[in-house]
Specification:
Helices cover 85% and strands 0% of the residues. With 84 residues, it is mostly helical.
Length: 84
């Protein structure tokens, strides 16, 4: 009976160790996926902000070219660019 008890304990110990290794692997995969999702979200936001700034600059250039004034003139109204 003593041999069966030792074999049961070693089987339990091996099962617990393998379970811990698998749990650590799963948690590492989850952290990598969380990092990738945040990275993707940041890329999307930066592209959105980049396109908004490019369209705002294009709008301002169009207003300056249509008005024929110097860009430093305070009388130029840029509110259509801000509203858009």
């Amino acid at each position: 009976m003593n041999i069966k008890r030792e074999q049961g304990f070693s089987t339990l110990l091996i099962t617990v160790v393998i379970s811990l290794i698998m749990a650590l692997y799963v948690f590492s995969l989850l952290s990598v996926e969380l990092f990738n999702s945040k990275k993707t979200q940041n890329i999307i936001i930066s592209q959105e902000l980049k396109s908004m700034s490019a369209s705002g600059l294009q709008c301002a250039v169009d207003i300056i070219l249509r008005s024929g004034q110097k860009p430093t003139s305070a009388s130029i109204d840029y509110t259509p660019c801000v509203d858009a």
